[in-house]
Each structure stands twice: as structure tokens, then as C-alpha cells.
Fold this protein.
Amino acid sequence: MLLSAQSQVAGFQAALSELYRIYWYPLYAYIRRRGHAPEEAQDLTQGFFLHLLEHKTLGRADPLKGKFRSFLLGSLQNYLSTEADRARCLKRGGKVEFVPLDVQDAEDRYRLEPVDALTPEKVFAARWAMALLGEVMNRLRQEYATGHKMATFEVLKTFLDIANSKDPPSYEQAAAALQVSVGAVKTLIHRLRKQYTALLREEICRTVSDPADVGAEIHELCEALLVAEGWIVP
Amino acid sequence: MNTNSRDSHNKPGRPADLAAREIRACSVCGAKFSATRNSEFCPMCMLRKALADGVESGESSASEDTVKPTLEQAVQRFEHYELVTGEDGKPVELGRGAMGVTYKAVDVDLHCPVTLKVISERYLGDESARLRFLREARAAASVRHSNVASVLHLGRTGSSYFYAMEFVEGETLENLIKRSGRLEVKLALEIARQIAAGLAAVHKQKLVHRDIKPSNIMVSVEEGNTVTAKIIDLGLAKPAPDAPAEAAISTPGAFAGTPEFASPEQFAGVGVDIRSDLYSLGVVLWEMVTGHAVFRGSPAEVMYQHQHAPLPLQELEHVSQPVVVLLEVLLEKDPIRRFQSPAELLKAMPTMTSAIDARRPVTRHSLQETPPVASRVVTREPPTRLGPEKISVARLPVTGSDVFGREEDAAFLDDAWAKQDVNVVTIVAWAGVGKSTLVNHWLGRMAAEHYRSAELVFGWSFYRQGSRGGTSSADEFLDAALSWFGDPDPRIGTAWEKGERLAKLVAHRRILLVLDGLEPLQNGAVGAG
């Protein structure tokens, strides 16, 4: 976890890379939103990552007093206004491996999200929420894949939010697909939901300094998603 | 969804998946979200699961084989009320309105069912919406009557408000009519009497319900054939205006209600009073005794008929004469010719029933305390065609500098307005001729004489510069029109999407849209307005 790893010790870079891998898109989109062209935005996204590493910003002050998300956005704003040029020089001579960014994908998404009327901060938070949920789903899938239970995951994932499924399977259909009893399907669904919730809390915990802040973070993310009115794509 | 390494890098789906996304409203919380082929999850509900787990853990000892939708229940708990879920695990929804969703719920302390109305998630951060919701709850709570469902409690969880209402057993009047085809006259009159009694209580609080219709009336028929009717939704209830709005054409009152049951003045967008509810009650009574609404068709046709068409009295052939007279009074186009209050209607009820029992005819005068005065409004003859089938463009020839404001030009506009098949009138002339003056003069007359026939007049001058940096006045026009018609957030979307939303919002209204100063939209054209 970043919270434990960030204290100027080895593992900090790994932890940061991991978080950056998950949350680079909201940062990238924010930079694009500030008027930078795709290539430039890519450079700046990478540059900001290096800047964080270089300055050990995360380990230095008390950045994680509060939310990683707000800290990251604040640092990015700072970086964009004062250190952009310097960071780009760094990048040119840099030795550190970058986080791989798929800019083509990012651009496809970016174009689909016409949210010009919202504040960049709200959009950032909404994109952050989507990145977070995407990561949780990926981790859940990984857990099932590791346990050789991909079929279970594929059949039952709809039950995580069955109310919004356009073509929801019945318990009976799910049982037939997995060749188990209806009772067993219900148990499996219950487990899936529990795992999902646990992973979600864990993932949010990575980005707040105090576990007591998880609720507040969820509320803030929900508020951002609300005002984004569905324009942010999953 | 596949499992290759691409996903582990947390990238979105392929562009093709993204392009196929669709913005939906969550069926649980009402928030909008993007659904793609691979993801049909409401992000807000998914996020809240972590909250729910925090609440749930520690108190839940459900073994894994007794799976209940515990997570949902935890999410769907509002103080000591718990939403009732159906077999599919979804909360049992009783209705969905502009402001919120109503659910069946259980008071976990008292173990009794309640109806819970929860403010829609989309309004969570919206202070004015929250005030509206509070006002609605307070209005509803102020009415205490056995024929109106009582509001029991107003509460909040987090930043969301809800209120609990008495849960009314039985079925909606809509169901009962559907089930029975049509109701026996005596039963229909008794239900109407009880609705009138409920409306009298609403009226006493100086409120207007504005949405009296069979689906908002709960009825239960008990042993011995006694019936109880209750008005259940005061969602659109509003304080009655102190004085009826007269020059109301400019009142930005977007229509609220249900076209089949709305009064003529409701469509006009002018202030309505309790007599509007009495008209709606008339439509409900009509439906009870005939099995269908008095006017049917597309919303525009229904609206037109409510305002101008005579009642199809031939459909009442099987109905006894006193009921026909009662319906005629209730369904008067001009409020002044109706009963003036629910109390007046209630007073007429015994006369009605005894006349029916004695098979004796009644007269309007025997029912109404105040005999109707001559109408202030002349109902126009309906033109032969109700809706335009194609767009016609009429051109007003304005040729000289001294013709505007003159009666023949105004008469030309009158003529175009009266012709239902004219959709667009363009007024083209040199700058300075006085096109705007003419139109303004004519609109002023319309406001004074015909406000009941114009559902809405919406004008915008493109001469105005956009006041927000970088936006044109056309953008501002779209935004203003969207908010006028109740779009929750006019800022979102491209101009094309906004246009589509606007088209949907205005689809059921007859609207006179005045666009002035279109020159900036033409390249190099001079003086065309």
C-alpha cells in the first residue's frame, strides 16, 4: 500500500507506479482540458510522474494528510504552472522507466466526454471514480482468474448491479450455465459481492490517509459522478 | 469482458465499445451513467457498496448459503425505514416523479408499511431542488384528512432527503377502472365525493394538487361494499396564487401534470387554483363512468381538445341525467362556470344522489350555489384539422417603412396563427422597417386577447451578444430554452444533443417561438429578421 510504502523507503517508486498506472487517465484528461495537445499532454503526464519521483513529494511533506486524489491534483496544478518546462528536460535525459500510457485509447475516450460545462476539478474526480471502479473490477477478475473461476465471474458479474442489467439472467439461468444448484449460485453471488466490496474498500483505502475518510471520499466521488451526468465513460 | 493483459492495465474498452455507449438513468438511484456493452453498472451504486459494507459488517452474520440481498438492504435503508425488495432484489417502486422516487418501505420499529419518497439523486447537490422537495413535503404534511394520504416524517440520510407517508392499502383507481371496464354510477359518485372531500382539505391549506388522476387515487373496497378513496401524491401541489394571473402569456409556467387530466388553464401555463383540480376530478369521473378519458389522442390533440373541443356527450348515453349535468359543470372550459370550490361540489352531492334514486332530472342551477355568469372567454370553434401535417412557411411582405404596426399586417399574423397548418412565419424586410415592433405589437395583443390559446410564447433576440466568453447568443438561446422547459442541466452536451433534448421537451406543447435578429446566423445577409 502506498500509505506504508511512501515513507522515503524502497518500494515508494513501485507503489507510486502502481497508483499512477491506475489513475493516469484522469490526470491526462485534466492536462488535455487545460489546453495541451495530445502529444504534449502525454509528455506532461509522464513528466509529472517523474517529477513526483524526483522530488519525493509524496514522502516529503505530509501530502497524504487527506486524500491522495486531492494531493495529486494540487501537485499537478502546481507542476503545470511552474515546472512543466523543467520536467520536460528531465524527461529527455531521464533514466527512469515510464508508466506505459495508451494515448490512442485515451484520446478516444476523451473525445467522447464532452463535459466542458463542468469544472475541471469535478471532471477530474468523476474520471478518478471511474478509474477506481475499473481497477476494482480488474482486480476482482484477476482473483477469479487466479482461482480458475473465470466462468463463475463472467456469469455472475451482472449480479453486482443486477438492477441495471438490460437482460438480467435469473438465478435458474445462472445455475444452469454454471451447472450448479440455485442455492449454490446464491452463495456464489453473495461471495462475489463480498469480495467486490472488500476490494473496493481496500482500493479506496490506498488513496486516503485515514480509513475513516473512506466514506467522505465515496461521497465526494459520487457527487462528481452525479454532476457529470453519465458523460464519463467507464 | 476478456482477461488479457490489456485489462490489467486498466484501459477502457476498444473505441468500438466506447462508441456504443449509451447514457442511462440508474433504475435504483436515478443517476445518469454511461453504459457500454461491457459495463452496465451504475458507478454511484457500485461505489456505495463500500459504504454499505461498512454499515453492514459487524451486524450481519448471514451464513453464505442464506443469501439475502443484504447489501442492497443496507444501501436502501433510510433511518428506521427499510425499502421492501421484490423477488428480483430490486426495491418495490410505487411511482417516479420529477422530484423523486416513491418506494414501499417498512418502519422497522413499528413493523408497519410506509410509502417512502426519496429525492432523486440527480438533485443531491442542488439547493433549490432540495428546497422544492422540502416545500413539497411540508405542503403535503399540512393536509390532514382521511381522504388524503398523510405525511408522517421528514428525514435525511447523508445529503439526501426523504419523507415517509402513510402506506395506503388497496389499488389505484386506474387499476380498478381497468379491471372493471367502467364503474357503477353510485360507486363512481362516492369515489368522486371522497376525492372532493380530500380536495376540500387541500383547498383549506390554500394548495392546489395539480395532478388529480386515477393513478393518484388509491381505493379499497371493504366488506359491505364500502369504499375508501385517498389522494396519494401531492408531488405537484403548489400554493394557489393569491389572484388569478390575467396577463399571463409571459408567465414562464411550463406545463406540469398529465395531459389527459389537466385543465385548460393548466395548459395555458397561467396560475391555476383549486377549480383546476375540480376540472381534473371531472375527467376522472368521466373515466369512471365511461371507462376512458374524455379526450384522447396525442398529447397535442388532447391539449387542444381540453381547451377548445365540446364534450363528446354522446359517450354518456348510458349515464343518468344528473351525472351528465354534473360532468358538464365540472368540465366547463372556463373556471368561473365550474363549482367554485370543493365545498360547493360536496354540497351538491346529496342533491345528485337523491335525484338519481328518484330518477329525477336536475338542473345546473339546482347544483351550483352561484349561477354561472357569462363566460369571459369565448371558446373558439375547432378548426377542421388538429395538427399540421407538413411545414408551411408563410411570408409576410413588409415593404415600406410605415407599414408596421398597422392592422393589416397584424391581421396577417392573426391569420397565420389561426391556421393550424402554418408552422413557420418569416418576416423579411430591410433593417429599420420595424419588423420587431410589429411582432411585439402583435404579441402584446395576443397576450391580452388569446392567452388561453397560446401554450407558451418564447422569444429570443439574436441581437444580444453572448454574455459568456466564447459562446454565441445561439448557444445561450439553447441553454435558456432548455432551462425554461425544465432540462436538469442545460450546460451539458453538444449543440446537436441539446437540440434533440429540447425537441423532446417541447414535443407535446403548442408553442409560439419568436426568433428575432437572425442576421448573425446568415453570412453577409443584411436586414433579414
Remarks:
- Confidence is low (pLDDT under 50) at residues 1-9, 59-64, 93-97 of chain A.
- The longest helix of chain A spans residues 120-146.
- Chain A touches chain B through 66 residues (CB under 8 Å).
